[in-house]
Amino acid sequence: MKVCRIFLSSQSTDWKAEPSPMPSLPAVGHTPQHQGGLRSPPWYSLYARTRLGYLFYQRQVKKARERYPLGHSVPQPCHFPGVKILPIPVLSNNYSYLVIDTGSGQAAVVDPSDPLAVQAAIEEEGVMLEAIFCTHKHWDHSGGNAALRQQHGSCKVYGSTLDAIPELTNPLEDKEKVKVGCLTFEALATPGHTVGHMVYVLDGEPFGAPPCLFSGDLLFLAGCGRLFEGSPETMLASLDVAVGLGEDTLLWPGHEYALECLTFASLLELDNPALEQKLQWATQQRQEKRSTCPSTLGEEQTYNPFLRTHRPELQAVLGLRRDGGEHPDAFRARVLKEVRRRKDLYKPT
Ligand SMILES: [Zn+2]
C-alpha cells in the first residue's frame, strides 16, 4: 500500500514537475528499458499497467475542477478566415484544443482530458464534434474519449494502435491525412514519450494560415516530454520531424509548462537574449493567467534546449564533446539525453 500512497499523492515533486504520466487501461503498452538511454521511473510501469493510473486521473480531474472552476488559464481563441482554434484549459496544466471549420460548424478536438470542459466548449460554440485526435494513451490526454463518444455517436477517435488509446475507432498510420469539414489534419508518428505518440498538423494553407502543430507531449514551449517509452535517439528523430514542419508553424502543446521550462532553460544558457525575452514575456503572461501558446517553431529553435542539441554553446555548458568518428546525430542524442536528465532532476522553486 505504500506504493499506492506515494502514487496517489499529488505532492510528489516528480509528478508536479513533469508531464503527467497517465496510463491506459487495459495496459497494452510496454516500458522498455533502453540500453544507454534514460530509465523510466519505477512508478511509470504501475501507472501504465494498472488501474491506479485511471483512479489517479479521476482524482486529478475532481481536484482540478474544484481548484480551477474556470480553468487554469484564460483561453485565447485564434481565428483565421474559415477556422477557429480554441484552447481549452483542463486539469491543472493540460490543454485540449477545439478546432472548428467555421463554415460548416464541424469540429475536431485534440486530447480531450476533461469531457465536461470540452462538452461545455462544444455547446458554447454550437458546433458538431466529428473527430477526436488523441496524441497518446495517457489519461490526461485521452480520459474524455469515452464520455464524448457516448454523447456524440458519429464522432470518430483517431490515434495510433501502438498506444492502446481508449475508444480508438480509426487507427492512423504515419503521414495519414484526415478531413473534418474543410480542415485537413496530417498525423505524424513521433515516438519517445510513448511508443505510439502522434502529433497532428492542421494544414493552414486553405485559410491563409501557417501550419498548426498539436504536439501533445512531444514538444512544449521551451521543453519536451519525458522519455517514458523511447530512447534519446528516438525522441531526437521525433523532434526533428516537428522542426521539419517549418519555422512559421504554430505550436499548440499539450501542457502549460512555459514558465517552468523557460526557467530551466535559462539555467543552462545564461547569455541568450531570445530566451531572456521569452522568459520575461511568459512571466508577465502567467501573472495574468494568460495562456502562453502558440509560439512558433522558429522561435522555439532560439531558446528551447531540446531543439538546440546542435548548438556548440549548449554542448559546452553540458561539458560534452563529439567523439572522433561519432555520427553528428548520435552526438546530438547524447546532448538531448543530458538535457533531459538534468530536466528530470530539476525542481522548480
Ligand atoms: Zn503523456
Q: Enumerate the spans where pLDDT stays under 50 for 5 or more consecutive residues.
A: 1-35
Order of helices and strands: HHHHEEEEHEHHEEEEEEEEHEHHEHHH
Percent of residues in helical segments?
25-40%
How many angstroms separate the termini?
A: 30 Å
The whole-angstrom Rg is 19 Å
| Proportion of residues in β-strands | 15-25%
Condensed summary:
By secondary structure, the chain is of the alpha/beta class. The chain contains 13 helices and 15 strands. It is globular.
What does it look like?
One of its GO terms (molecular function) is metal ion binding. Keywords: Hydrolase, Metal-binding, Zinc. One of its GO terms (cellular component) is mitochondrion. The protein is globular and about 60 Å long. The chain has a domain at 2-67. A hairpin with a 2-residue loop joins strand 12 and strand 13. The chain is α/β, with parallel strands linked by helices and 349 residues long. It has a seven-stranded mixed beta sheet with strand order 1-2-3-4-5-6-7. The protein has 13 helices and 15 strands. Helix 9 (258-268) runs antiparallel to helix 10. The structure holds zinc ion. The site of zinc ion has 6 residues, from loops. Zinc ion binds next to loops.
